[in-house]
Design a protein that fits this description.
422 residues, alpha+beta, two-stranded antiparallel sheet, rod-shaped, 7 strands
């Protein structure tokens, strides 16, 4: 049974790929059916009988012509219907009882109904039924209500209905297939969008971790190199800070990279994401690096939502890193986190003067600090402004909604409106 089914599917697939061959085979089958039907005498004394008559030469020619025309039914269905209908009418006029040339017109009408729309099917079908049935009734010797004449009317009507049904089913199947393909494309696009958002988020986290801790390591390493010969105890303290900052950086990198692990990889670290709960440790680390930081106000109760808490921490971390890198000597920073209605406002101020070299590195050096902060805040539905303060210094101000829209991507173009990369 499996072999027979496989062979049938192969033949069906081949015929679908070669429609002209299929139409040729159909034309031969219709010709055989018409020739066999022409040996039936519907007017025999004891009812229709087979073999009591033979088709005339003219009828055979008409049947061959009608079958040959059917081989082109897909290319021009209307022309084929007109040709087969005309040959059928000629047979009705010349021969009584006629040979079943009308079978070819039935197949042609089915093709028209299956390949056009419903209004066209109704118009053409009714016209064909009327013309062929009227021809059979007018030119035949049998009464107009004979079963042969009514059969012409019935067969043409069924051909039109069957073709319309096939066309409707094909349209329904095509619509289902199109919806399935559209749904599949939508799922793929959604998956790509989520992957891109996750990749961007991980890139921001990596930048925040690397920029902050490596800046501290660089500063402390410079201090150690400067005082190594004259003040070894201070150099040891600076190296201890380097070791602590590098250990912290490695821990956060391990936690971030753990998000990229596959299900079969070793278990990823389970440390919680940084937030305002560890803000004191961040401030202390920056102070040890030589930047005086004052925490003006931090409202921690009740706790902020996880995404907002992480974003606030990252904004403060990146802003303090920028102050340490670009504010110049003698700069001081001030940090505050306050709640205003349904938002949390994060502000980082400094009184640094900066230097042309540092400003250039921040503006044109290809950094991504402010860009990453703005994308992170915008992704939560908030806003971030960054720019020079009146009277000197720099100000970073982020407004984060407490009901964060964490599932929505950041608004394109927002990242480049204010400020520059760190």
């Amino acid at each position: 049974m499996t072999t027979i089914g496989t062979g049938f599917l192969r033949v069906r697939r081949w015929l679908r790929d070669h429609p002209l061959a299929f139409d040729g085979a159909l034309a031969v089958a219709v010709l055989v059916a018409m020739i066999v039907g022409s040996f039936i005498d519907p007017n025999a004394p004891n009812g229709p009988s087979f073999g009591t008559r033979t088709p005339e030469a003219g009828s055979v020619v008409l049947m061959v012509l009608a079958a040959a025309v059917l081989a082109l039914r897909r290319r021009n269905p209307m022309a084929v219907l007109a040709a087969t209908g005309g040959l059928s009418i000629v047979e009705f006029v010349l021969v009584d009882p006629p040979a079943p040339v009308v079978m070819s017109a039935v197949i042609a009408l089915y093709t028209v109904a299956a390949s056009t729309d419903r209004p066209t099917t109704w118009r053409v079908g009714l016209l064909t039924m009327a013309v062929l049935a009227a021809s059979a009734m007018v030119f035949g010797a049998s009464p107009w209500y004979s079963q042969e004449n009514l059969g012409v009317f019935a067969w043409t009507g069924m051909a039109g209905a069957a073709g319309d049904a096939v066309r409707s089913r094909r349209a329904f199947v095509d619509a289902i297939r199109e919806r399935a393909e559209r749904a599949e494309r939508t799922r793929e696009e959604e998956a790509r969008r989520r992957v891109a958002e996750e990749r961007l988020r991980i890139a921001r986290d990596l930048h925040d971790v690397v920029a902050h801790h490596i800046a501290l390591v660089n500063v402390q390493a410079g201090v150690a190199a400067h005082v190594m010969d004259k003040r070894p105890d201070q150099a040891k303290e600076a190296l201890a800070h380097v070791r602590e900052a590098s250990r912290s950086a490695l821990g956060e990198l391990r936690a971030t990279v753990g998000l990229l692990r596959q299900s079969g990889d070793p278990e990823a670290p389970t440390e919680p994401a940084p937030g305002l709960a560890v803000l004191d440790e961040l401030v202390e680390t920056v102070r040890r690096a030589g930047l005086p930081v004052q925490v003006a106000c931090v409202d921690r109760r009740p706790p902020l939502p996880a995404a907002v808490d992480l974003a606030a921490y990252r904004v403060i971390q990146e802003a303090l890193t920028n102050v340490r890198k670009h504010a110049g000597p003698g700069a001081k920073a001030e940090v505050s986190v306050v709640r205003v209605g349904g938002t949390a406002e994060v502000t980082v101020l400094d009184n640094g003067t900066g230097s042309p070299e540092g400003a250039g590195a921040g503006a044109d050096g290809g950094g991504h600090g402010l860009l990453g902060m703005r994308e992170r805040v915008t992704a939560l539905g908030g806003t971030l402004t960054a720019g020079p303060r009146y009277g000197g210094g720099f100000r970073v101000h982020a407004i984060l909604p407490l009901k964060a829209r964490t599932g929505e991507p950041g608004t394109p173009g927002m990242a480049g409106r204010t400020g520059e990369g760190a």
